Request: fold
Amino acid sequence: MTDNPMLTSLTAPAPAHLADDVLVEVGLADRMAPLGTAIGVLWVAWNGRGVAAVDLAEDGPAAAAHHQVVSGRRTLLADALPASLAGPIARRLSGDRSARITLDLRGHTDFEVAVWEKALDIPFGEVRPYGWIAAEIGRPKAVRAVGTALGHNPVPLVVPCHRVVRTDGTIGQYSLGGPGNKRAILAAEGLDPDGLETAARRGERLIGSDTTHIVCWPTCRHARRVSAAHRVPFRSLRDAQARGYRACKVCRPTAIEAAA
Amino acid sequence: MDDRTLAGLLADDLDAAFETLVRAHVDRCHAIALRVTGSHHDAEEVAQEAFVRAYRALAGYPPERISSLRLRPWLATIVVNLCRNRHRRAAPPALSLTALLDAGAEPQATLASGPAATAERHDARERLGTLLANLPERYRVPVVLRHVDSLSYAELALVLGKPEGTLKAQVHRGLAMLRVAAAAAGLEELIA
Reply:
C-alpha cells in the first residue's frame, strides 16, 4: 500500500447516528416516541418496515425496555414521531380510514394479521362483534381465536381492536390498560358504551328500518339515521329475515346466534 | 473480524450479522461518499441508502453467493453507483480547478500556524476535500477509492470495471491535478 498522506487525512468517522439510521431503516432496530391520545400518552415503536408497537408505559425508558424484550430488537428513544408517521396516525385516530400507515407485523400468524386487517374495516364510531370478524375472514367458528388475536394486537388504536365487542353485545376486555380504556376510546369516538350494553341486554342486537326493510348492526351509520318511529330492533339476523328484512350491504350483519 | 468470516456469518443469518457489517464498513462508505460527492449532506444520504440496498440485495441472494462476496469492493460499488446517480451538489465549488490550471495558478496563501492551528488544519482538510470533489469524475472516483479508501488496484478494477493499467493512469493523473490545485490554494503543507 502506498497511501498518500495528503488524502488519508480525508478519512473521518461517519456521524454517530448513521449506523443506527441504517439498522432502523432495514428493520433491525426500532425507534420509539410518545404520542398523545384520548387515553393519555402512548409509546409508538417503528422502523423502516412500519409501525411495530403501540403501548402504555410509565415513561420512555420503560417503554423502550419492554419493546426491546417483546420485539428482540434494540429500541432507541426519539423525541417525537417523524411527520411522515405523526400525520397519518393523527388522521387515522380521528377516523380517516384513507390514512396509510404501514405496519411491521413480522413474527405474527396469517390468522392474526387477517383479524387485524379486518378490524381496520370497522369505521370510526362503530363497533362489531368478534363473531362478525370471524365470519368475515371465513373462519366463522373461530370466534374465541379472534378474541385472542385481538388481545395480542401489537398496535392498538392504529388497528382499532377497541371497535370489536363481545358477541353478547357487552364491551369486553381491552389489552391497552383494561376495559375502562376501551370505553373511554369508544366514548371519544362518540359512542355511548353503557347505552349499547343496555340495548343489547334488552335483546336489541340488530336494528332494522320498516321503510327499507334493511337490518344493520346498531352502530352502523345506516342504522343510526333510522328515525325512532321506523326503528325495529331484532334479536338475530334469522328473526329479521323471517320478517322479510335483508342484511345491510355496508355493515353486513352476520348470523351470530351460535357464538356467544 | 475479516471480511471472509463476516461474509460467512451474513450467509448464515443475515439479520444477526448485518449490524456487524454496518459497524465495520460505515466509516469507509461514508468517507467514499463524502469525498466523491463533496457534500456532508449527500454523503450521509448516500451511505445510508447504500447499506439499505446492500441489505435488500443480501436478503435476495442465496447463501453461497453471500459467502463468496468480496465485501469491501462490493459495498464500494454500491456507494459509487449511488454517488453517480446524484447530480446535485450541496455547496458550490470554492474555486474552479479548471480555471486554476488554465491560469497557471499562482499560490495564494500559506497555512498560518497559530493558536487556532487545529481549526486551520480542519479548514485546510475541508478545502482539500473541495478540491478533490471538483476533480473530473473519471479521476476523482479512482483517486478516492485508491487513496481515501485504500482499495488495491485489483479491487478498483472490480468496482469500476476497467483494467488496472487504466486505473493507475487515472489515479496518477488525478493526483497530479490535485497537487497543482492544492499548491495554488496554498495547501502545500498537506501535500508534503
